[in-house]
């Protein structure tokens, strides 16, 4: 072994001459020999390299445990258990306990003193109830403050213990900030003045560039919630986000947009605009979940063009959407007020095709949206009605909303209405004035209310007379009495409350518009004349009737009225035989008024004003689509009451419905009217 070592030590000198230009291939051997000579053959301990992937920090608690403790501060660790065991053997000084609870006691005493000031205004039970709720609020706030302090301490300890492992550090930081921001929402005291929290923010300012995009995004959402103004740390994180988000996945762009949905500072508005620009450029990458969020967000914004682009994108993704998505598209379109007929037809087709049972609140929203967008899909309504009858109608609010939406649509499905009214109207149910107004208004519009339910509502309204007179706005009470008059359940006592002269003054002082109460007062006045025979109270004065004007029809109904009048003029010219837009003595409105003899032929209008058995006064009422219910095409309540009162005044009423008139050829319309007039006298 020794001879070999001596040979290797002299070998570089012997071979030095051989490493010239002639023998370059021996250079490698020479360098190897030099290395061998300098290497000791004695064993050496080589230190192991650190494996970052399998690195485990030398701490008592792992990063996952810290994060779990951040979201549940009640989990004890080994140190807490040791301290708890030690504390069991230590005697507690009552003075220390008093000092610790001094802040809590002072806050509670302050709340009690504030509540006691109102003792003269409230009774003892309500005072104690308010005091109890106030104390509970303070205790809850103190508990949240304690949790925030624990979380901040946990974060700082975790950052210090796991400093060699960045992945754990970043997770502890982001999760800690997220939990602190959640607890600070309902906490009146500010966490920004906490010294430990300032250390946490300093760490963010120093290491924000090391965070991944997702971690940076989580930090941004938490910091925005915590800081109302753009402090240095917020500016650093926001500017870094705007730089990194350009090439990010669209999911992260949408998430950043959600965080800045309602920005309060200029920088945060800039971030939101930056996200919107990215989304608009990458519209083809949007998924159904992205589209639903964007439609919801822009349904209440002014950017109409972008909402139209979202509607166009629906056509591309319609096959990949769920039933919830189809329902949401209709709801968001209703909120926006966008009635894209081609889109709605496509969505309704897929909704009916893939329909699944809906929750009661979804049914309520969907029906209201259909009413607002004038969607009349009988198949969809039948499915929704079946779901309503199978559901538990525990919430009176949702039940009332469904009934109201059904009245807007004119959906008179008797089984569904009976189910809704059974839930709302019973002897044990307590209804306030607003609930009674909505219920009666909906039932009267659909002209449906079973006899037993109507009597219960009638007796309930009689109890509310004194309460209603104290209301600041008398319009709800007017709606209640008018609805009962439509259902022929208005009593003399109820009618007298709204036909008194003082009530009209009260309406005018309350700021109600004429179009809101004039038609209803006229209807109640007619009901007092013809429906309530034992009424002996006041009526509307004659000058009030002269103030009322003929209401304006919508465009479709106006066109139909003109068409009917043109067909009548072919055999009954205006002024001589008929008149348009007249009003009776009691305020009932007529589209066309004429007179016919016993054979059904028109006679001169002037001569027919005299009472005679040879002439009949005819009131032509043109009924549009919204004057009838679906699917049976029955008269709605207000129209039915008006026709009933015209008949009481001696008129023969000729009703012409939209569904009949549109199917008659132009050349046959005059003959159709002659035939209808002839049927009136037979």
- Share of helix, binned: 55-70%
Largest sheet: 4 strands, mixed
Categorize the overall geometry: elongated
The Cα radius of gyration reads 41 Å
Report the portion of residues in β strands: under 5%
**Spatial order of the strands forming the largest sheet:** 1-2-3-4
Structural class: mainly alpha
Distance between the termini: 140 Å
Q: In total, how many beta strands?
A: 4
- What do the pLDDT scores average to? 79
Continuous helix count: 33
Give start-end ranges of low-pLDDT stretches. Answer: 1-12, 14-60, 75-105, 117-124
Question: What would you say this structure looks like, in words?
Answer:
The radius of gyration is 41 Å and the shape is elongated. A 4-stranded mixed beta sheet has the order 1-2-3-4, sandwiched between helices. It is mainly α. Among the domains are: 2-38, no CATH class; 460-547, no CATH class; 555-681. The relative contact order is 0.03. It is built from 33 helices and 4 strands. The longest helix has 38 residues, at 124-161. It has helices spanning 2-14, 27-38, 63-71, 78-88, 94-100, 102-116, 124-161, 166-183, 195-207, 213-226, 232-244, 250-259, 266-281, 288-298, 304-317, 323-336, 341-353, 360-373, 378-390, 396-409, 414-424, 433-445, 451-463, 465-469, 475-486, 492-499, 501-509, 514-530, 542-547, 555-569, 637-648, 658-661, 669-681; strands at 578-583, 589-597, 615-623, 652-657.
């Amino acid at each position: 072994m020794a001879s070999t070592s001596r040979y290797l030590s002299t070998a570089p000198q012997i071979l030095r001459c051989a490493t010239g230009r002639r023998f370059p291939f021996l250079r490698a051997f020479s360098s190897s020999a030099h290395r061998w000579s300098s290497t000791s053959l004695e064993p050496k301990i080589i230190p192991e390299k650190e494996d970052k992937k399998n690195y485990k920090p030398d701490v008592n608690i792992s990063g996952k445990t810290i994060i779990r403790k951040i979201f549940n501060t009640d989990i004890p660790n080994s140190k807490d258990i040791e301290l708890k065991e030690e504390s069991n053997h230590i005697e507690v000084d009552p003075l220390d306990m008093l000092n610790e609870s001094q802040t809590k006691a002072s806050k509670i005493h302050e709340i009690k003193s504030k509540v006691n000031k109102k003792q003269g205004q409230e009774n003892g039970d309500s005072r104690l109830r308010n005091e109890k709720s106030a104390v509970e609020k303070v205790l809850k706030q103190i508990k949240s403050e304690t949790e925030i302090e624990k979380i901040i301490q946990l974060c700082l300890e975790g950052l210090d213990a796991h400093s060699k492992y960045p992945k754990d550090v970043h997770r502890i930081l982001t999760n800690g900030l997220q939990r602190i921001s959640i607890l600070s929402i309902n906490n009146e005291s500010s966490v920004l003045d906490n010294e430990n929290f300032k250390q946490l923010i300093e760490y963010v300012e120093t290491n924000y560039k090391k965070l991944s995009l997702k971690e940076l995004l989580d930090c941004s959402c938490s910091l925005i919630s915590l800081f109302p103004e753009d402090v240095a740390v917020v500016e650093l994180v926001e500017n870094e986000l705007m730089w990194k988000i350009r090439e990010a996945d669209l999911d992260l762009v949408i998430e950043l947009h959600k965080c800045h949905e309602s920005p309060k500072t200029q920088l945060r508005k800039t971030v939101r605009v930056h996200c919107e620009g990215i989304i608009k450029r990458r519209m083809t990458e949007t998924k159904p979940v992205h589209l639903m969020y964007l439609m919801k967000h822009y349904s209440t914004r002014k950017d109409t063009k972008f909402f139209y682009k979202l509607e166009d994108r629906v056509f591309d993704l319609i096959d990949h959407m769920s039933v919830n998505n189809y329902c949401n598209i209709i709801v968001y379109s209703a909120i926006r007020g966008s009635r894209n007929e081609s889109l709605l037809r496509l969505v309704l087709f897929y909704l009916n095709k893939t329909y699944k049972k809906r929750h009661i609140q979804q049914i309520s929203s969907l029906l209201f949206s259909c009413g607002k967008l004038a969607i009349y899909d009988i198949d969809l309504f039948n499915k929704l009605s079946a779901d309503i009858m199978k559901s538990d109608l525990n919430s009176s609010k949702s039940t009332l909303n469904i009934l109201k939406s059904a009245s807007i649509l004119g959906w008179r499905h008797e089984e569904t209405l009976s189910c809704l009214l059974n839930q709302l109207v019973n002897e044990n149910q307590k209804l306030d004035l607003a609930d009674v107004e909505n219920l009666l208004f909906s039932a009267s519009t659909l002209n449906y209310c079973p006899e037993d339910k109507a009597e219960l509502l009638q007796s309930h309204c009689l109890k509310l007379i004194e309460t209603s007179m104290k209301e600041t706005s008398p319009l709800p009470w007017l709606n209640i009495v008018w609805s009962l008059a439509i259902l022929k359940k208005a009593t003399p006592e109820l009618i007298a409350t709204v036909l008194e002269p003082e009530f009209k003054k009260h309406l005018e002082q309350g700021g109600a518009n004429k179009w809101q109460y004039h038609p209803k007062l006229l209807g109640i006045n007619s009901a007092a004349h013809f429906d309530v025979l034992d009424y002996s109270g006041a009526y509307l004065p004659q000058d009030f009737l002269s103030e009322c004007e003929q209401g304006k029809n919508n465009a479709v109904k106006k066109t139909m009225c003109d068409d009917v009048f043109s067909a009548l003029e072919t055999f009954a010219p205006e002024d001589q035989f008929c008149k348009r837009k007249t009003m009776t003595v009691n305020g009932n409105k007529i589209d066309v008024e004429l007179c016919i003899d016993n054979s059904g032929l028109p006679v001169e209008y002037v001569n027919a004003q005299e009472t005679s058995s040879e002439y009949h006064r005819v009131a032509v009422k043109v009924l549009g689509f919204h004057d009838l219910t679906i699917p049976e095409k029955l008269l709605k309540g207000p129209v039915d009451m008006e026709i009933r009162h015209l008949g009481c005044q001696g008129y023969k009423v000729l009703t012409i419905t939209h569904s009949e008139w549109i199917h008659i050829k132009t050349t046959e319309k005059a003959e159709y009217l002659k035939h209808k007039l002839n049927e009136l006298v037979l």
